[in-house]
Amino acid sequence: MAQRSLTAWFTLPGLRDKAPPTPAEAASFDALLPKLGYLSKAEVKRVREAYKFADEAHLGQKRATGEPYITHPIAVAGICAEWRLDAQALMAALMHDVVEDCGISKAELIEKFDATTADLVDGLTKLDKLQFSTKEESQAESFRKMLLAMARDLRVILVKLADRLHNMRTMGAMAPHKARRIARETFDIYAPIAHRLGLNQTFRELEDLSFRYFHPWRYTALSKAVAKARGNRRDLVSRIEGEIRTAFTKAGLRVQVQGREKTVYSIYKKMREKGLMSFAQVSDIFGFRILTEEPLQCYTALGVLHQLYKPQAGRFKDYIANQKDNGYQSLHTTLMGPLATPLEFQLRTEGMHQIAEQGVAAHWIYKSRGGKQASALIAQQANARWLQSLIDIQDETRDANEFLEHVKIDLFPDSIYVFTPKSKIMALPKGATPVDFAYAIHSDVGDHCVAAQVNGEAVPLRAALRSGDIVEIITAPGASPNPAWLSFVRTGRARSKIRHYLKDLEQEESRELGEKMLAQAMRTEGLGLPSLELDAPEAPLWHALADWAGSASTEQLLVDIGAGRKIAAIIAKKLARLMAEQGQRPDALALTLGRFTEGPVDDRASVTIDGSEGASVQLATCCRPIPGDEVRGYLGRGEGLVVHTCECAVGKRLFQRDSEHWIRVEWAEELSRGFEVGVSLLLTNGKGVLAQVAQAVAQAEADITHIAMGDEAPALEEVEMNLLIAVRDRLHLADVLRVLRRTPAVQRVSRTKP
């Protein structure tokens, strides 16, 4: 393998100076033809037909630069050709805007070309023709469609990235505010996707171009500083190059030596991370890449470099043994060069380099060359799980904004590598927890996770994992996801699975509550609730009721009632009329009891609370009801059932304003947990006063769940303290208050009331 000099080592890939084509050349198929040498004559003919179709469709359209619009599809197809994508992908690249901008239908594309090409174009088409409530929702839905199409066919995202790359390269003629918006979108979504798929060359360029348009002044200033530093350090670079060549020649190792310069954005990011105030403080703006023939030679070359320059402690990473999730493999090390200059080195084989720069696109490059290297498929296989996870998340998350949120979570550039007890390695985003690990194994493991051990020791479920950890998950059959997990999980898969479970649970609770409430309302009509069995004679009755109410099904109707989106009394009156049409008449005695019992409903129809209720039943935080209090429930619109004490001032105001939404609530005889209640104390300030209060509460067999004091409390002779205490019922609260009153430091204590 011949050694190469460092010619033009400081240019950013994709931005090298080229003679610009004439407008006529750029708008013709001749601009694309030289790049299609890897295709057969028949395939080139099909691509030419797609060009003619796109050219006719875009006839008369201009870009913001004033060029014919067809120059853009040709340039996008050219980028795809550099990746050696197949003829269908190139055809889709040429026609990617014909549906959106020219009114061409998918059916026309199928008829003119083929179904696969039409599917690719459809996956690339925005959803501008649909109506959305906000621009953000439209954008989220567009990304959702694109990412799901990508999961089915990876060529969709490759063409889309090529499209965005050319748009970013030619954005100079665009209005600044629009350029900033597109740059932010590129930085947040497209650049991370390129990185996630291993297209590092495209990732770096998209990041740099986004920075250029989002922070133009900073980009210009840094670009000038980098150009100046480049000239000043040319002699140093030549010296380092000579020393590296000499060292490898003496070792008898044939390698390629390439120089690389940090992009403007990566320099800016490093300055912000390290708090550097000026570019002059940045010492490591350039590095070197060593390409070997075999993986083992990477380690040999590493030894040669470590003999030449002193390595910096803690700055070595082995991504060959532990490849990144996107297929990236390389050795990274930082050495102290001449004049105490930090030098970053990357060591990899040519195959690894191809995958490092082109990611999943390397699959098509090797395929077009007829190569059989297994490394050509690494990036393709490494991303298969992530792509499948998009479909899994979609199955559980129909909301476009939520789907996009989950995907963004998974677009982390850094990964950690942990092991199962059976030594299977798993890649997770940095900061991942045992819960993320559990869901990465299987959704059932995550759903029933109760504890975790890392390297043989018990750890909290929110603990951050580190590379090399051996993680074991402990499960229990009756366990279920905790809503608090959403505050610390880091993977989109874990977040979507937890939310999906909680939504299902909330739906079931709302359905049960809705059935109870409708049964209560039907009693006031003197009727019983018809059978809800699917094969019961009353099934057509329920279908008619759901249609009238605008619900998708009977189940959804009951859920809507339980969640407060529909009023049980109104639904009951309609159901009574439908039943009357079938000859069913109300029972006179039941009707009398239902209408003349004091309160909204009779005692037999009240909702019972034992503390095991989920999100569909909430205890109001204004009055914090506990067993023994007289309570009633307010059915807020979309909030489920909120329980207030009958003495609650907030509840009284709501009752006066909206009495129809109130139902009777009662406490169960057996309770499943303690209930929080607010307690206010006036204390004589002094040493150990908090300990006295805590000891008194513990003596009464209660638990303090929250303490609040004023910021100036330490300086005052008397202080007010507010506690949240978990008690069993009103009798237990009375015991707690009695013990607190006997405490020497307590002057006054009472239950907090709104």
TrEMBL record:
Enzyme Commission code(s) on record: 2.7.6.5
One Pfam family named in its UniProt record: TGS
Record SMART domains: HDc (SM00471), RelA_SpoT (SM00954)
Organism: Pelomonas margarita
Recorded family membership: Belongs to the relA/spoT family.
Transmembrane segments: none
Residue intervals of the TGS domain: 414-475
Cited CDD domains: HDc, NT_Rel-Spo_like, TGS_RSH
Residues of the HD domain: 69-168
Chain's role: In eubacteria ppGpp (guanosine 3'-diphosphate 5'-diphosphate) is a mediator of the stringent response that coordinates a variety of cellular activities in response to changes in nutritional abundance.
Taxonomy, superkingdom: Bacteria
Domain ACT residues, every copy: 678-754
Record-given protein name: RelA/SpoT family protein
Gene Ontology molecular-function annotations: GTP diphosphokinase activity
Keyword line: Transferase
